[in-house]
Amino acid sequence: MFIVTIDEDACTGCNSCTECCPARLLSFEDGKAVVTGDETECMGCESCTTVCETGAITIMEM
Questions:
Q1: Phi, psi of 7 (to 5 degrees)
Q2: Structural domains in the chain plus CATH codes
Q3: Residue 62 above 90 pLDDT?
Q4: pLDDT tens digit string along 10-60?
Q5: How many angstroms separate the Cα of 15 from the Cα of each of 31, 47, 61, 62?
Q6: DSSP assignment of 47-61
Q7: What pLDDT was estimated at residue 47?
Q8: Which helix (H) or strand (E) holds 18?
């Protein structure tokens, strides 16, 4: 199981992560990416961390 988190202070609002997440866990609200789904449903594919230029997204294996 994986858990995805977003550092709102580091997020620049580029929206790249929300477009690439195959699990559709991320969305764009108030100019920032947020986890709107169940963060434990992350597949651990790391596509969001790959496109995030600021390193605002972390995926941890539980």
A1: -85, 105
A2: 2-61 (3.30.70.20)
A3: no
A4: 999 999 999 999 999 999 999 999 998 887 889 999 999 999 999 999 999
A5: 8, 13, 24, 26
A6: HHHHH-SS--EEEEE
A7: 96
A8: helix 16-20
CB neighbours of 27 closer than 8 A, spacing ≥ 6? Answer: 18, 33, 34, 36
Tokens of 20: 């690439």
Per the CB < 8 A criterion, the answer to whether 42 and 23 are in contact is yes
| pLDDT score, position 37 | 80
Rounded (5°) CA angle 57-53-2: 25
Answer whether 4's CB lies under 8 Å from 61's CB: no
Residue with tokens 């929206």: 15
Neighbouring CB atoms inside 10 A of 9's CB total: 8
